[in-house]
Amino acid sequence: MSVPHAKTLPKAFDEKTAQRAVELACETLQIEADAIAALKDRLSTETGAAFAHAVEMLLQCSGRVVVSGMGKSGHIARKIAATLASTGTPALFVHPAEAAHGDLGMVTENDAFVAISNSGETAELLAIVPIIKRMGARLIAMTGNESSNLAQLANVHLNVRVDKEACPLNLAPTASTTATLALGDALAVALLDARGFQEEDFARSHPGGALGRRLLTHVRDVMRSGNAIPSVTADVSLSDALFEITQKGMAMTAVVDQDYRAIGIFTDGDLRRLIGQVQDFTKLVIADVMHANPRTIGPDQLAVEAVEIMEQFRINQLLVADVNGKLVGALHIHDLTRAKVI
Predict the structure, then answer these.
(1) CA angle 275-278-282, nearest 5°?
(2) What residues are paired with 157 via a beta bridge?
(3) Span 12-29, mean pLDDT?
């Protein structure tokens, strides 16, 4: 007896099935690539003016960009809003069904509203668009049907039409969502460029990421300071300098003058090289064996610059000095690793 609505069991995954899967994957990628290529061709000819108008509208928006869509278009809308927000354009996602039950209060007359619907006839969007228009917000529609109600209501319509979906049944949103997402990225990049958005701006909105750490972490944030800095004066014995190196645990000591300016450095590596050359260490003072004029970095420089200096000169320690040459800190390569600058 057959069971109504039972799922069809998958057939055995043999070599022929595997080959078919690969063929379908390649076909899917080609269809989606063709969809984006066709979108590019339209943008460079018939829809370029509309795209430029949309960019101008978003640049002039004194409020936020509100992006909205239902179903798969809603997922794309969330991604576009997130990309805009992270590249200098204040943006948020509003669910159209929730908007009809109170969330429309998140939209103001100063906002620009981007409505995404492949058909251009999504009922939930059409229910709120007239209200949005009446309050004075500008409307950008992204649809695959320039004759749709949503397209006709919009101040600017961006055509994301595709010839076919990648789905073998031509039903599941695949190529259409890919094209829409790509056009959303194009909007974000155009706005980023028009705003003069730089790496430092990106880092400020991504402080927890690797780029944020590299661009926002300064030497003063990770350097050792105060009593943690290993330092001796030039007249101390080598033995006393070695005690300072051991006590402070940085595998080196700075050598300073009476004004606490960095005039030299002595490291564990220097000690190893010295062992084969010197018979009596008790007769040496640190000034005899230190490296004079050590490399330094300023406390307000980026920590990533310290990494570059260490890599360039193949050193593991770096002294931090102010504009007058006074020693204010010290860095070990491990300090930068722990701060995840490296």
Answers:
(1) 100
(2) 141
(3) 89
